Model the fold of this input.
Amino acid sequence: MKVGVLGATGYAGQELLRLLKRHKEVRDLYLASSSVAGEDYESVYPHWSGQKVGSLHDENVPDLDVLFCALPHGLTAARAGSFLARNMKVIDLGADFRLNSADVYEEWYKIKHPAKDLLASAAYGLPELNRTQIRGQSLIANPGCYPTATLLALVPFLRHKLLQTNYLIIDAKSGVSGAGRGVSLGMHYAEVNENFKAYGVGNHRHTPEIEQELSRAAGLPLTVNFTPHLVPMTRGMLVTIYAALQAGVREEDLRECWREQYGQEEFVHVLPAGTWPQTKFASGSNNAFLQLTVDQRTGNVIIVAAIDNLIKGAAGQAIQNMNLVMGCPECQGITGTALWP
Done:
């Protein structure tokens, strides 16, 4: 396959390169960056020295089989139609095609949607939950990192009517790489180190994406309390969820639901009772880890999910989607355990 990456010098773009270089079906790689076109990739990321990555191109994309777009919101949608017209498969790591409604997108992202006519044709790319819808599609919306962890934990329970839908609290923490490679005051070392803070409280842009997919699973509109936090670590994501059970639902019913959904999955792991997910379990891998307990005092369930925000939350999942779209083995190029310690 001939594969391209737009935004190849961002953190997600660099992870795409790392994984695609070991993919057996990728023959040619076109790496593009509007900011440093013409420079050698090794000059941007010196740890690639000696590996003959080559020079970065501008974003005048040649004919390719698959194009990954790791770009700020609005930029992919403005060009996606032209890429699709040239028979490319487009996998968008941004937000442009995640939401079904252009009005909701414009409300949360504060720009006009450049390609409303393409929204209906985009598949939401969370393979463990939407595999059938992804296969053979040409436009894939790669989920956000917070939604990935949250949906893997909750969607099976909502599909089987095991949880009440009027009480869902999502308390999430991410490493600073989730903010991207751009410079901002809040990402300075002195601002982040030895600090822990909530952000986007009540208005984080992943909220409508989470609500959309949970509503689809439940079969009715629902809202959630979602609060993200920034943790002084480079990568990793831990999501803790509090939910009320439907009458008569037991902890074992929840575990059995997860086993049925994920028992044959390569990348989603339901941990033994008493073993709680840690971010280092997933660091550098495409794996997700799940655990839960029912609090006997409150009757509520507490659920914890951990992923690597740059792999299962971005680049690894994007390649998983490429494999499904192009008919490759789904785990091609993205297997492997986490780095430890």
